[in-house]
């Protein structure tokens, strides 16, 4: 049976130990002595599951915003090399606002 990280995270320690009992993998040896956090990490390793939650960006063009950030970083480097601190401050603020926009759209 295949599991997702969110599904495993919602299970009790007893249920996780039951799943581990059916696995023959080095990561789950001694599963009866592991607490939930360690057992969850071991099961993810044994089952080949990403051990973190994936977040999705909804409502914005993430690739487009990232391209804008890369362009602004090039301008930032040029302003820093030229010693133009007024322009530098504005560029840093725009980069910051774009990154915040991505974080706000993360679900």
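Sequence proposed for the structure above (107 residues):
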């Amino acid at each position: 049976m295949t599991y997702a990280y969110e599904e495993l995270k919602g299970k009790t320690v007893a249920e996780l130990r039951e799943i581990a009992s059916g696995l023959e993998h080095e990561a789950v040896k001694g599963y009866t002595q592991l607490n939930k956090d360690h057992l969850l990490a071991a099961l993810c390793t044994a089952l080949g599951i990403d051990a973190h939650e994936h977040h999705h960006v909804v409502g914005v063009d993430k690739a487009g915003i990232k391209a804008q950030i890369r362009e602004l970083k090039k301008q930032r480097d040029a302003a820093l090399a030229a010693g133009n601190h007024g322009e530098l401050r504005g560029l840093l603020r725009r980069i910051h606002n774009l990154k915040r926009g991505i974080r706000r759209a993360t679900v």
